[in-house]
């Protein structure tokens, strides 16, 4: 079999939304898992709505998701001459024709059809006209769509989908100003780029019936179609702004790790047995079109958080720190300095199993990031009453000559609590308040080991 080639072809009229991100991921996984190519095309023929900023946002979103593409990014607008060339080839082959009907004439046809209860699909009087009768006037080039029979789309997700040809009009492929329509441009680009599999949202399913005509008219091989259901909100309705964050880059700013996002998006409408949490390498090996369901998937933030939490726990510590840096930059937060990074890296073993997002990780690792004097919240202040401060003062003296390992610190603190007639929890509360400024923290031993002897003693002294 020839090499698999997939593509992602967004319009640069806004950010890369979550549905687009999943479509790109499915194309990427399908190609990468089979040693194929994943291509990127920007469909920028709508010059009024397309912006360089939107293109940049799409590229940033894909890059954050870790979806690398092969070769240069293709601009559809730059290929307009090639699209026009194909329209004229169809004209010469008799599979397309010049139509001189004006907008007023087309609207008059439709009004009459509505009044008579007929189909409003425009039937051009120029379809079979003798070229000798053509006026010297502006014209569009229209496809000669079959008038009878059925167009069948063999779809890997939707099954066999049939369209009555009496429902398909002679679509315009080249406008009167010589610019191509979207329907023509997509097919020419996919053919020229060698695309073997078109994996896209099922809102394009009707387009497939019309686009297949162009393939047939040119004698080109029709790609494998796979139209995937759209993503709905938790309420079961099509995603819109009311459902909250939609742009892929917003999910980075919210602090979700890219690997977790890939895992969650892959499972959004596709399944592999009962597997919920998997690596990107596993997803590449497992992903197939047969695993995609026909029903719309629902965006579930609880499941997203759970999946991302699993990936935070699975990630290599250094990689986690690198992605944390990128999160801080993307969200406009202050970067970590060398001391903070060193402490966070040392403490990652005690933090990452309990964090679901990067803000979560930073909050749990706050003790490693703050500098003296440690700012304390209300509960921490309450934990540092005069009696507790006196106990911490005695503890500070005991720690001055202690060996700084968990094996040594654990019995030391346990014995100290016993001497004071305290349960360990009663001793731990003021230590947490002094070291972290919070009462909910990682274990006191982990905090002491991460920030070190000198910093631990200094913070305890500050609190007394």
TrEMBL record:
GO terms for molecular function: ATP binding; glutamate-tRNA ligase activity; tRNA binding; zinc ion binding. Keywords: Aminoacyl-tRNA synthetase, ATP-binding, Cytoplasm, Ligase, Nucleotide-binding, Protein biosynthesis. Its EC number is 6.1.1.17. ATP binds at residue 241. This is Glutamate--tRNA ligase. Catalyzes the attachment of glutamate to tRNA(Glu) in a two-step reaction: glutamate is first activated by ATP to form Glu-AMP and then transferred to the acceptor end of tRNA(Glu). It catalyses: tRNA(Glu) + L-glutamate + ATP = L-glutamyl-tRNA(Glu) + AMP + diphosphate. It is an enzyme of class 6 (ligase). One of its GO terms (biological process) is glutamyl-tRNA aminoacylation. It is found in: Cytoplasm. One of its GO terms (cellular component) is cytosol.
């Amino acid at each position: 079999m020839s090499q698999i080639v997939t593509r992602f072809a967004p319009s640069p009229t806004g950010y890369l939304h979550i549905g687009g991100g999943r479509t790109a991921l499915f194309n990427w996984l399908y190609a990468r898992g089979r040693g194929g190519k994943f291509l990127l095309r920007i469909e920028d023929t709508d010059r009024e709505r397309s912006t360089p900023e939107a293109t940049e946002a799409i590229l940033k979103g894909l890059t954050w998701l870790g979806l690398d593409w092969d070769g240069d990014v293709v601009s559809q607008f730059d290929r307009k001459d090639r699209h026009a060339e194909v329209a004229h080839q169809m004209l010469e082959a008799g599979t397309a024709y010049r139509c001189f009907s004006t907008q007023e004439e087309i609207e008059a046809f439709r009004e009459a059809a509505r009044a008579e209860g007929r189909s409003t699909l425009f039937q051009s009087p120029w379809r079979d006209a003798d070229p000798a009768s053509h006026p010297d006037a502006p014209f569009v080039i229209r496809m000669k769509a079959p008038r009878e029979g059925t167009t069948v789309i063999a779809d890997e997700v939707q099954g066999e989908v049939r369209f009555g040809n009496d429902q398909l009009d002679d679509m315009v492929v080249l406008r009167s100003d010589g610019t191509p329509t979207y329907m023509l441009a997509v097919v020419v680009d996919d053919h020229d780029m060698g695309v073997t599999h078109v994996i896209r949202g099922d809102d394009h399913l009707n387009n497939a019936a019309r686009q297949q005509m162009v393939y047939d008219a040119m004698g080109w091989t029709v790609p494998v179609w796979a139209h995937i259901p759209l993503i709905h909100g938790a309420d079961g309705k099509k995603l819109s702004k009311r459902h909250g964050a939609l742009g892929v880059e917003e999910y980075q700013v919210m602090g979700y790790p890219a690997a977790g996002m890939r895992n969650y998006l892959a499972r959004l409408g596709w399944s592999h047995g009962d597997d919920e949490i998997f690596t990107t390498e596993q997803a590449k090996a497992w992903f197939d079109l047969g695993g995609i369901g026909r029903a719309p998937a629902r965006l579930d933030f609880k499941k997203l958080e759970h999946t991302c939490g699993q990936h935070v726990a699975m990630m290599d510590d250094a990689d986690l720190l690198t992605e944390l840096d990128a999160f801080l930059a993307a969200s406009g937060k202050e970067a970590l300095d060398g001391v903070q990074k060193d402490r966070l890296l040392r403490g990652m073993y005690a933090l990452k199993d309990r964090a679901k997002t990067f803000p979560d990780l930073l909050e749990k690792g706050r003790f490693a990031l703050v500098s003296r004097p440690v700012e304390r919240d209300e509960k921490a202040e309450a934990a540092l009453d005069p009696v507790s401060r006196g106990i911490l003062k005695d503890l500070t003296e005991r720690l001055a000559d202690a060996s700084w390992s968990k094996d040594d610190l654990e019995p030391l603190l346990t014995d100290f609590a016993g001497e004071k007639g305290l349960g360990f929890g009663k001793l731990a509360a003021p230590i947490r308040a002094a070291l972290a400024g919070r009462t909910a923290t990682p274990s006191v031993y982990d905090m002491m080991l991460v920030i070190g002897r000198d910093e631990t003693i200094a913070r305890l002294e500050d609190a007394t």
